[in-house]
Design a protein that fits this description.
The chain is mainly β. It has a single domain (12-225), classed as Lipid/polyisoprenoid-binding, YceI-like (Lipocalin, Beta Barrel). Helix content is 6%, strand content 42%. The chain is built from two helices and ten strands, in the order H-E-E-E-E-E-H-E-E-E-E-E. A hairpin with a 2-residue loop joins strand 7 and strand 8. The chain is globular and about 50 Å long.
Length: 227
């Protein structure tokens, strides 16, 4: 199916590492072979998001805007006055993608995300998120998302099943996504997938020491090209 890094995609779940880390600030991002809010990225970088699996990962400028392809994790601080924390994953690769842009049902996709590419706009927090306390990115250097069983549920709406592997733990998600646009060999999708970061044993346990809530949301806008 479309290279859905969509709600599932999460692959991104990796962002789970959020819990308990510093104050919220702007996000930064760069990305590779495929690619919600912050500053703009170059058009060429955005196009790199559609590169086939064989292409070398490329990077984009920090802080993607809502109209630029992206994968990010959003969480709320326990203290509402501190607002949200946004963590952008700047590098991901669509390893496989098989689908008909005119009818996504039955499509499949496999996406890999690099946890080391995360950025929350705060260097100390980023370092903490990558540490063994959270994502342990040095040990678990790749997060994967495998999407299948895509079904149409509305005019531009679809559901799918995603097998997510993060921090050495595998989970199955039932998710939904929306088609934003399509061409003869690609499709652009938008998704928002809520989950609990403790599902992947990432970060604190939601105790008094945790500054970020356990419930987080994986968001993405991705252009998926058939491989």
């Amino acid at each position: 199916m479309m290279k859905l890094a969509a709600p599932l995609f999460l692959t991104l779940a990796t962002a789970l590492a959020l819990g308990g880390c510093g104050d919220d600030k702007g996000t930064t991002a760069t990305r590779s072979a495929s690619g919600s809010t912050a500053a703009s990225t170059s058009a060429s970088a955005a196009r790199s998001a559609t590169a086939p699996a064989s292409a070398a990962p490329s990077t984009a400028k920090p802080d993607p805007q809502e109209d630029v392809d992206h994968i990010k994790l959003v969480a709320d601080h326990v203290d509402p006055k501190k607002g949200k924390v946004e963590v952008v994953f700047s590098k991901w690769t669509v390893k496989k993608a098989s689908f008909d842009p005119a009818n996504l049902e039955g499509g499949t996709a496999e996406i890999e995300v690099d946890p080391l590419s995360l950025s929350s706009g705060v260097a100390d927090r980023d370092k903490h998120l990558k540490s063994p306390d959270y994502l342990d990115a040095a040990k678990f250097a790749t997060a994967t998302v495998k999407v299948d069983k895509v079904k149409k549920t509305g005019d531009k709406a679809y559901s799918a099943e995603a097998t997510i592997s993060i921090h050495g733990i595998e989970k199955k998600w039932s998710m939904s996504f929306e088609v934003v646009s399509s061409t003869a060999d690609s499709v652009r999708i938008k998704f928002a997938q809520p989950f609990n970061r403790r599902d992947f044993e990432v970060g604190g346990k939601g105790d008094d020491k945790d500054t970020v809530k356990l419930d987080v949301e994986l968001r993405g806008l991705l252009t998926l090209k058939k491989t």
